[in-house]
Design goal:
two-stranded antiparallel ribbon; alpha/beta; TIM Barrel
Length: 332
Amino acid sequence: MATQNKHSPRQLGTHGPKVFPLALGCMGMSGMYGPSDERESIATLHAALDHGITLLDTGDFYGMGHNEMLIGRALKDRRDKALLSVKFGALRGPDASWVGYDARPAAVKNFLAYTLTRLGVDHIDIYRPSRLDPQVPIEETVGAIADLVKAGYVRSIGLSEVGAETIRRAHAVHPISDLQIEYSLVSRNPEEALFPVLSELGIGVTAYGVLSRGLLSGSTPASQGDFRAHLPRFSGENLAQNQRLVGVLKSIAADKRVSPTQLAIAWVLAKGQHIVPVIGARKRTQLEESLGALGVELSASELKAIEAALPPSEVAGTRYGEPQMKHLDSER
């Protein structure tokens, strides 16, 4: 499958918006990878919009609301340039701990009320539960968002990290624009059980973790506040094994005279026009490098060669820790 029309907008499913082929993930601007510079974050957001990026992805629990307030400040004079994708449901304590999940209809509406205020907007373009709440039928959660669509507060409904059955049940209540799922050269599970269902139902993909949280770019946890220090792929012998795989990617990238980051993003772009990679840049230099992936052309034979050189079976460690993996509906 060769890449083509890389700068053309991509449609997020049959019922979602058209967006720039790359989206900007803003989580890293609110502490998940350690301290960040607010001025640089806002400058990066502005640069992304100036380069044509339209979709900004956030969560109301990123930095306990900090991320939404940051984006709100950045969009103060340019709201018309951005489409906002917001995840909700995760509960945080004042010590930044994770204390549960809530996707009840009343909670959905409460979360959105605060999100609109923090962002300083009158609607959200794509609103999605960040995970499946095992205590609440997905029909009730999606039904509540559908009420918000009717009221004009939400434009489209998305999902995140859910399995095929949940996708079908949700889509039967209200059309789903896209599934947000981790997808990269070293995380290819969605290809088997999820992508065929999405194709059948006309649902798009916003792919996060396209660099496996920096693993494919050679990045490693740099500070105590970096949550990657607790992820299996960045721990001990797993990291050593994975760095050997990254070395293979670096070699292939060098042959094409591009960076490993650009090659990894280009691979995701090449896997289908229905997929929009979410790049996690929090600095302008990272943004510029990621945008360079749009100029990387990959033939069908090159795609196969890259995939053969980095088989997922040789990746050491799961993408999340064991407790989180057990709670992911997408992994069932």
